[in-house]
């Protein structure tokens, strides 16, 4: 199957487009509406998503706690059924992984590592 990578598509105008600002200086953007949500602003990369980091830390500690509980039940240091330990193990993994992932991104962003930005963390 042949691909058509050199075909340039343009949006067809309709009645709703009347009155909007258009880019006239660049041929690639001609005929498209200007949407300020997608403007590049350097401050957007510097904003620290505190709520998301707090949620990530909560998930990290909750997952660690559930993993320790399941380990103690399975090793016999705590009373409980093995089925309870497997349930806690599954919940611990489900809580630990996203918490660790986002906490790691936040830490490397704070340290200034290349390729890591606070913009990679969703903001709530």
Which descriptors would you attach to this protein?
124 residues, mainly alpha, 3 helices, 49% helix
Task: Provide a descriptive summary of the structure in words.
The chain is mostly helical and 124 residues long. The protein is built from three helices and no strands. The chain has helices spanning 42-46, 50-75, 82-111. Helix 2 packs antiparallel against helix 3 (82-111). The radius of gyration is 25 Å and the shape is elongated.
Q: Point out poorly predicted stretches.
A: 21-28
The SSE string, one letter per element, is HHH
Query: What proportion of the residues form beta strands (DSSP E)?
Result: under 5%
Cα-to-Cα separation, first versus last residue: 43 Å
Radius of gyration: 25 Å
**Biggest sheet details:** none
Mean pLDDT: 81
The helix content, as a percent range, equals 40-55%
Q: What is the strand tally?
A: 0
Count of separate DSSP helical elements: 3
Shape: elongated
Helix and strand content put the structural class at mainly alpha
Summarize the structure.
The protein has 124 residues and is mainly alpha-helical. It has 3 helices and no strands.
